[in-house]
Amino acid sequence: MDSSGRVVLPTAFEDADIDHLALLIADMLERLMAHNDRIPLLPESLTRFHSRSAPGISVLEYLRRIVRFTKVEKSILLLTLHYVDQMCARTPLFTLSSLTAHRFIIASIAVASKGLCDTFCTNSLYARVGGISLTELNVLEREFLLGIDWRLTCTREVLQEYYINLVRTDSAARFTIPESESFSTSEDSDADMDSGDAESRSPSPLQMQAQAQGVRPPSTGTILPDTATLTPQVPQGPTIEQNMAFAALQESLGRTRSHQGQNHPGPS
């Protein structure tokens, strides 16, 4: 720890403790989810990743469960953030929320591990660890690959930038990286921000998403700013399947609220 009580992390993400990475990633995703949960859900926004209700496990505990039972690699955890940016940039109506995050995470880790690692688990194990059926994971896997246009790879430098910025933006300021080394991979972007040129850079997926929905984005954007090479898909109207799923979701939420009201009656 340093003099302020913060945990000093190694410069390279490969040397970091995997639980520290899980803490940092969960912090970022939880903030993104809290923002997106305020955006009204529309029928055309429904995807295969939507569940009828938010899972009863936090993102952090979900990541820890995956780490424990699948021995996922550190780079694969960080790639989840890259895939969120990819998906949001290509599909503006997609939002990572409390209804989509868990399915997105398990699909991301399963696909990336199988595509990029020498050793990986079977879909049956990923499904059990993720708390979904094998059939559902297979469907999510195909949907995920289509959503990111099958672009699974990412450079080590990009992952390092995610790592550095996760430490920078940690909401609890629990961690630090030695000042002399921490930002050596992103000096140009630091110089842009210090000189006031940050506004001229491409908006992050979170900012684009918020603008499209008419919602002001929070001051902490997504991690990686460069989305200029991505081609967003043109938003389409809701399909019959989406309308039916939306109606079923609304009915499910209505039953949940009614049940909660019966269990917690108001004052007489």
From TrEMBL:
Region (Disordered): 178-268
Ranges of biased composition (kind: Acidic residues): 187-197
Gene Ontology MF, one: protein kinase binding
Signal peptide extent: none
Domain of life, per lineage: Eukaryota
Cellular component terms per the entry's GO annotation: cyclin-dependent protein kinase holoenzyme complex; nucleus
Listed InterPro entries: Cyclin-like_sf, Cyclin_PHO80-like
Biased composition (Polar residues): 201-212, 228-242, 253-268
Transmembrane segments: none
Annotated PANTHER family: PHO85 CYCLIN PHO80, PTHR15615
UniProt-recorded name of the protein: Cyclin-domain-containing protein
Species this protein is from: Coniophora puteana (strain RWD-64-598)
Phylogenetic lineage: Eukaryota, Fungi, Dikarya, Basidiomycota, Agaricomycotina
